[in-house]
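Field reference: sequence -> structure
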Amino acid sequence: MTEYGSQSLFRDTAGLDATQARELADRLELRAKSPDEIEARAAYLGLLDVAEGDRVLDVGCGSGVVTREIARRVGPSGCAVGVDPSPALLAIARDLADVEGLGNRVELHEGSALALPFADGAFDVAIAVTALSHTPGAEGAIPEMARVVRPGGRIGVFDLDTDMTSVTHPDRTLTRRIIAAASDANAVDGWLARRLPLLFVRAGLQHVRVRGFFPLDMDPRGFYAGLAERAADSALKVGAITESECRDWLEALHAEQDRGPVIAGRLHIFVWGGKPA
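Structure field:
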């Protein structure tokens, strides 16, 4: 039986030390700077109608990329609340919010997506961004998010579809093996996003809608180029490819990058709906 998520760096972050948290935070912040990621973030927060004065919960906030953008949108009369199981990541999120002058609009709490430490109806909006696919038992997070949103409030989840990963490479057969192996190894549930509409309906949400995003970049130093390299490393660690196959695949990838523009990216699915008034 396949052990999904055996190589996920975000599966259990509660015990991260400061150095480990900084490494993961740097990756999240690098991804956040991609133009496609910036456009996607603006789009899904717009679809959720995050507005001035709202109280908004960011589930699995990590380094606070989305929390900070929410804080900008809700303004001084609103509040962006982040929750994450990692005290070390929350400390980084606090520092980044303060540096950007958003500290007075941001609250940060330690906690689990499966047992949110908030009262019923405490928020206007709840969102989870690329967090639930790394969370064991993540299906239970949807009714929890619905619980903490007020009647008439909105819920959204933006998450990965790990099989749908694209990278420019001349070897189709080996690339497909690597992507499939990394899909299973690097996310606890890389197909969760495909089930989200049904999970939303089962949680009693209404007007459930879906939209796809496929952030791409061409920078060999960018997040998604690094993601392709990590995919090969994960495939090697789980025994899906040999050391020589890994080495040859990476050499061919680097050669493609040296020859000219290449692409790397991954499908993300955004599902959103409303709690009955």
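Note: The domain at 18-165+189-217+267-274 is CATH 3.40.50.150 (Rossmann fold).
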